[in-house]
Fold this sequence. Notes:
- Residues 10-333 form the FAD/NAD(P)-binding domain.
- The protein is built from 14 helices and 23 strands.
- The chain is α/β, with parallel strands linked by helices.
- Helix 3 packs antiparallel against helix 4 and helix 3 (51-67) crosses helix 7 (188-199).
- The chain is globular, with a radius of gyration of 24 Å.
Amino acid sequence: MPATVRETPDAVVIGMGPGGEDLAGRLADAGLDVVGVDERLVGGECPYWGCIPSKIMVRSADLVGEARRIPGMAGIARVHPEFRPVARRVRQATDDWNDKVAVDRFTGRGGRFLRGTARLTAPGEVTVLGADERETVLRPRQAIVLATGSEPAAPPVPGLAATPYWTNRELIEAEELPESLLIIGGGAIGLELGQAWQRLGCAVTVVEAGPQLLGREEPESGDLLTQVLSADGVSVHTGVEVQGVEYRDGRFQLLCKRGERFSADRLLVATGRRIALDRIGGGVLGLGSEARAVPVDERLRVVGTQGSWPVGIWAIGDVTGKGAFTHMAMYQADVAVRAILGQGGAPARYHAVPRVTFTDPEIGAVGLTEAQARAEGRRVRTAQTELSASSRGYIHGSNGNAGFVKLVADGDTLVGATSAGPSGGEVLGLLSLAVSARIPIAELAATIWAYPTFHRAVGTAVAELA
């Protein structure tokens, strides 16, 4: 057994995803002796298995979808999708799942990196177990930051664990397109990848237990995507509960509560993500097995540790339960860095968290849905404007302009909004600002909206509320 190494840096950052890497680098820039720890790749889920490679697949598939709109509108086009160039671009973008560039980027700023599994072993103490079985015990003088992210979660469906099912990670790394794919879960990940693979030539079936796709968003968003995905050839099934999974002779079969059976070559489980608090020593923080996230205050300091720990401990990103988004981790990293360095500034606020589902059309949303606002007892008013005469124009007319803008107001300000359409994520920017800054509806109504743009629909919807 190798000897245990003991060190006392200024700060330890556990988890070097987008938020952790940014925070650790900024602390190093400030002159602190920082140790960053990760058992996987520096950069985290986003650049290797999430945001970046998935959007390469989505963009490639969008090209196919756009080309198929040419007949009847701009001439004749025949499209023959090919997956290998897409897989090749994914490997290039991820450096073939090698993080040397990212590690060098961090160490070049003065930080130190340890590859290994880290966990809290006592208040103010982090123990790292490396691949060589060497233990490094770190007792930082100033700060510990938990930025450990989340991991794909699989439901406790009988038979599932014994099968070679995929999560987003295995799907992103795939070099060949199977003939057919089953997807359990009708959330953002399943729908983005499902639509992309269908357009690239794979027969896709989506099975969702809830009554609609994108169950956490406005029902209009789920309805729109059900129509569009079905028109693309995706087989969509909502309100279907999977009760068993079988894998025989290279084929998966889903056994469902009402007797439905679905079969395919591959199975993607896209039912959400989990935070493995037990792996990082959540018990040291006083968190029980039922805890779903690390509780933090408005400065991202872990609740209950001030005064009882010899060093400050903060948490950022997925592990805080405030939203599993790269932009959330980066936002929280900024708040935590300022807190650690004593720089003050604005505390964390979560009333205007933006989120985008990168399907075609895109579904952008910010703040509260209508249902959430009503559940909070707010004085809810809504307005909605379609981007085109009807979503049937998208499906049958192939103009690609289906979508809508829906606004949720409480009194004279917006508390939520959805922009669904070809540029839904881009239109969301102005809506995020309106919700975040609590811009009066009268001020929005007095704004001049450029014509003809998709965001002009925001002005039309605002006029209904003014």
